Amino acid sequence: MPHVVWEELDFTHGKPLRTATLSTDGSTFRLLRERGSHPRRFWASLTSGFLPEGYPDSVTSDYLGFQFWDTLQGLSTYIRSMLSTNALLSGIGVGKTSATVIGATFQWFLRDFTGMLGGVVFTIYQGSNLDCKAKQWRLAADFMNDIGMLMDLISPLFPRLFISILCLGSLARSVTGVASGATRAALTQHFALQQNAADISAKEGSQETAATLVGMLMGMLLAEVSSGHTGAIWLCFLTLTGFHMFANYKAVRCLCLTSLNQDRIKIVLQAYLATGRVLTPSDVSSREVLLPQFSTIKHFCSHQGVVMGAKISTIDYEGWQRFPQMVRRYAKGSYMIYPHRGIIFVILHRYATREDHLKSYVHALVAASLLQSFDADESENSSCVWMESNYPVFLSELHASGWNVNRIHMVPERWRAEWHMDLKSD
């Protein structure tokens, strides 16, 4: 008799659990295969609270490595936080008969006020730079957190400077709060392959909560055992801090971002000009510098400067003589490049898009490389020829090599301009 074969799958993990047959008249049912014991099903249910639905197909390949090291660094942070908090409360006066409630409250107020103010100031100066430097600021955020904890731990050692040290620690943690939160959002978008950023964020919260619970328990035990032993406290703190920075470095090194920023474009283009091959995101990941740069304007290529978003008013007398020629050349363009004294100035049009930012930066880097062998005029002319013949090919090869050319994170530029030829004579 004809029969129907059906299979039941656990979509969370994408694995079949049961296979059975059913006769077409519904009279006979037979279970052919059942996978997974009860302990395995329990384990699968438990991990579903910590891993995104559809894992590993729903996230990028670097997700697991990053989360592993990120959880370890978080664990060390929560252990150390118990030590630093213990020292902080001791400095405020908890347990001392001479301490007053209003005094402790005022000290806590100054600490929080300084941190909040520092967070706002940091956001003003570096907030727009966090998307395009997600790796670097992620690492810097955790380093600043280490500084904040260190300040809390040493604050009781200097009673007269207690408030000042306390506020410095709060300032350091304010940078951590802003940079860590912003870069975490950027990385979540990177991991999400199936528009599942919310799910990934929720599961990351579960992982962090679990690490917090374990870290707090271990930290309480460590604080109890080392209580009164200053040398042991410092040895544990410094050892855990060293491991924390190592785990953070490993976590960031695991990341293989496919979005394009100025550093990654520079690395890819330099290799392309030298070998004619576009590097993959994995190739570039190992070459990226992980220290954040506070400069948001100048970027260097083979010792030649590139200034993005330059003001037209920075052009000197010699440049003004060439300006009509520049306007004619870039009349229909969204940017102009102006080589001068070994520096490539990029003037962006008022309506330049992110794609125009990418094109202008590539053009400037090509001109900068040519400037080492030719004068300013010849390097500009040759770079324009290169862009016309090679840029479309370069762009398509970027896409073919795994780069997401639709996700371009360039440092926001303040200055724009608008130009056109006025054919009317006076």
Model description:
- The chain is α/β, with parallel strands linked by helices and 426 residues long.
- The chain folds into 3 domains: 3-47, no CATH class; 63-254, Growth Hormone, Chain: A (Up-down Bundle); 260-409, no CATH class.
- Helices cover 58% and strands 11% of the residues.
- It has helices at 38-47, 63-92, 101-126, 134-154, 162-191, 197-226, 230-254, 262-275, 281-285, 317-329, 354-370, 376-400, and strands at residues 3-10, 15-23, 29-34, 260-261, 298-301, 304-308, 335-340, 343-348, 408-409.
- The longest helix is centred in the first third of the chain and has 30 residues, at 63-92.
- The chain is globular.
CATH topology group of the largest domain: Growth Hormone, Chain: A
What portion of residues belong to β-strands?
A: 5-15%
**How many domains?**
3
Strand order of the largest sheet: 5-6-8-7
CATH architecture designation of the largest domain: Up-down Bundle
Sequence stretches where pLDDT stays below 50 over 5 or more residues: 295-304
Order of helices and strands: EEEHHHHHHHEHHEEHEEHHE
Shape: globular
* Share in helix: 55-70%
Number of helices: 12
Mean pLDDT score: 82
Main sheet, how many strands, which sense, barrel? 4 strands, mixed
| First-to-last CA distance | 96 Å
Rg measurement, Å? 29 Å
- The helix/strand class is alpha/beta
CATH class of the largest domain: Mainly Alpha
Number of strands: 9
